Amino acid sequence: xxxxxxxVAVLAAVVxxxxxxxxxxxxxxxxxxxxxxxxxxxxxxxxTSTRTPGISAVGRDVFSIPPALGPTPSGSPSPTGTGSPxxxxxxTSTxxxxxxxxHSVSLLxxxxxxxxxxxxxxxxxxVYTKAEVESFDGGFxxxxxxxxxxxxxxxxxxxxLCEHPQK
Length: 167
Fold this sequence. Notes:
The structure is a single chain. The protein contains 1 helix and 8 strands; from the N terminus they run αββββββββ. It starts with a helix and ends in a 5-residue tail after the last strand. About 10% of the residues lie in helices and about 30% in strands. It has a domain at about 100-160.
């Protein structure tokens, strides 16, 4: 009984291999056993479509990152879809870091999230992501964002930082 089951399993494996994995329908590579003189018939495979319709990517680059998986605030700015970039100011000596009232302040990034200009600013080692007019770290406030620069206030002192100062 065990031999019969083993034989059936081997036969099923051979059929599976030939039909599913090896059945490409190509040309015969060697003549049949016995070296017969009968020519083998030429078989042309008929093209058939085995593809099933999948997800369509019409209207978007299939190699780009999907919008839902786009860059995080620390990534690069996402396109706003206006078709023309807004001009950035050209700072001549605006730093990306300063010290205000003993606090170390660095502008890390300026970007657009859901159509709103945002900044990522670090104060004494803590990173904040804020829009215009938002306050953070007990007294700092973003007063304006323009291009790659932002203006802040702290205790009545106004100062500007740029993402990449020109040298």
